[in-house]
Amino acid sequence: MNMAETIAINRDLYDHHDHHRPRIVAKPGLTEEVVRLISATKKEPKWMLDKRLRSLELFKKAPLPAWGPSLKELDFNKIIYFVDPDAEEAQSWEKVPEEIKKTFDKLGIPEAEKTVLAGVGAQYDSSVIYHNIEKTLKDKGVIFENMDAAAQKYPDMVKKYFMTSCVPINDHKLVMLHSAVWSGGTFIYVPKSVKVELPLQAYFRMNAKKGGQFEHTLIIVDEGAELHYIEGCSSPRYSDKSLHAGCVEVFVMKNAKMTYSSIENWSRNVYNLNTKRAIVHENAKMKWLNGNIGSAVTMLYPSSVLVGEKASSESIGIAFAGKGQHHDTGSKVIHVASNTSSVIDSKSISKDGGISTYRGLIHVAKDAANCKTYMKCNGLLLDKESRSDALPKLEIKNSDVEAAHEATVGKIGEEEIFYLMSRGLTEDQAVKMIVSGFVGPLTKALPLEYAVELNKLIELEIEGH
To answer: How far is CA 184 from the centre of its chain?
Structure first.
């Protein structure tokens, strides 16, 4: 297959702006030609193309993951791995193509930028179409770029950190796939001792039918620095299966603090197979906040590797599984250094036959003494047809450790509903109030605007929308 056969050109996607180049859409299926097309379109350095091609060869030979929901119904040969939306990146929202702008306007971007954010990035299918950051942060040396541009502008830094020690390309089959076809995403560097007071956000929209989105997020929070990054995701609903296999790599240096918040609301045709991992150095703090609402199948386990003494990790997650959904989520912590600590607090809600699975791991290495760790997973069933499973795993190789685990699965009690209804609430209102209290730990940790958004999404799921 030659390059001309590999890509399909559509010059008529938008009627509201001038075309500088044709829209590029790769044909379904993963081939070397598709990988080379992505790299050429992004004008990447040779080392990145070489890494992509090595990843492709690894992907072809690797088996599907042995854990989690079955992926046998996901046909990788039917996925479109690259959709370039024919839009140059803009720093002014007014310069974004009209049709794309309408999509993000409905999602509240860039309104949030005006009030609660220090910077915003927006990705549409395979390309970042908007990026902006406060000038005061730029002046302090903060870098907030799309990942494609970062590979060209900061090649030494990207080459050092990109899919090397945090998420190596041979980690597992889905990582190999991502490394071969990644496109877009976010690159952030926060210099030493710089505290980013307001969150930075990127919003990812997968709009193409049968499409795949494979954004890469690489964040480096240098010594003594602080950052809160928020990720939002969505897609329209099609009958054909779509694939999201992003990757997040976070490096939290000595005495730094990092919070990574994610609200993922993919539609019910999407397989959300994401990899998120952080390396946490001496006396540094990593916090993961995750809300998973949409997608047919989710496999997501934000992980922290505590490599420096007094490093800590906290993970708070909520998953809502409705009809036809299986959320296999949780968190993992690897205690490599002594005197480290971690907390995992995972909650799930199942309704209309939905399946929620908690899959968690705490590993304390042989030489990691005086560690403290706590894992808690709670499942809430809204009916008799739904299911909630807990699969916690504790691997403690050192005897000088404080480790505890708690797991519960329960139904909404009739007594609680009766009590609230006796106070004037309808049954639906009573259920919503109980669920709101159940997910409270996550919503309280989010900025107000995002907590409101998450609560609204959960209410819509309860109502069956």
So the answer is: 14
Q: Are the C-beta atoms of residues 218 and 147 closer than 8 Å to each other?
A: yes
Spatial neighbors of 4 by CB under 8 A, at least 6 apart, are: none
Q: Please state, in angstroms and rounded to a whole number, the distance separating the CA atoms of residues 357 and 319.
A: 9
Beta bridge partners of 144: 188
Residues 6+ apart with CB under 8 A from 459: 432
Q: Does residue 443 sit in the same domain as residue 335?
A: no
Extended beta strands in 32-178, E state: 83-84, 119-124, 127-133, 143-146
Q: Are residues 215 and 341 in the same domain?
A: yes
Domain hosting 424: range is 414-465
Rounded to 10 degrees, what is the CA torsion of 214, 44, 221, 247?
A: 20
* Phi, psi at 43, each rounded to 5°: 55, 50
| Structural domains counted in the chain | 2
What is the Rg, in whole angstroms, of the alpha carbon atoms belonging to the chain?
22
327-350 pLDDT per residue, tens: 999 999 999 999 999 999 999 989
For residues 199-234, one letter each, b for 16 or more C-beta atoms within 10 angstroms of the residue's C-beta and e for the rest, the string is bbbbbbbbbbebbbbbbbbbbbbbbbbbbbbbbbbb
Q: Report the largest interatomic distance among the alpha carbons of the chain, rounded to a whole angstrom.
A: 70
Measured from the Cβ of residue 59, the count of other Cβ atoms closer than 10 Å reads 21
Task: Select from 125, 143, 148 the least CA-distant residue to 133.
Answer: 143
What type of residue sits at position 401? V
- What stretches of 107-218 show up as alpha helix (H) in DSSP? 111-115, 135-139, 147-153, 155-161, 173-181
Contacting residues for 45 by C-beta, under 8 A, at least 6 apart: 151, 152, 155, 159
Mark whether 95 and 184 lie in a shared domain: yes
State pLDDT tens for residues 353-411: 999 999 999 999 999 999 999 999 999 888 889 899 999 999 999 999 999 999 887 88
The number of residues making up the chain comes to: 465
Interatomic CA distance for residues 54 and 63, integer angstroms = 16
Structure tokens at 393: 């795993």
* The amino acid at 245: A
Element (H, E) at 404: strand 401-411
β-bridge pairing 143-146 and 185-190: antiparallel
Mean pLDDT of all residues belonging to the chain:
81
Within-domain flag for 136: yes
Strand order in the sheet with 200-205: 127-133, 119-124, 200-205, 226-234, 257-265, 285-292, 312-321, 341-350, 371-381, 401-411
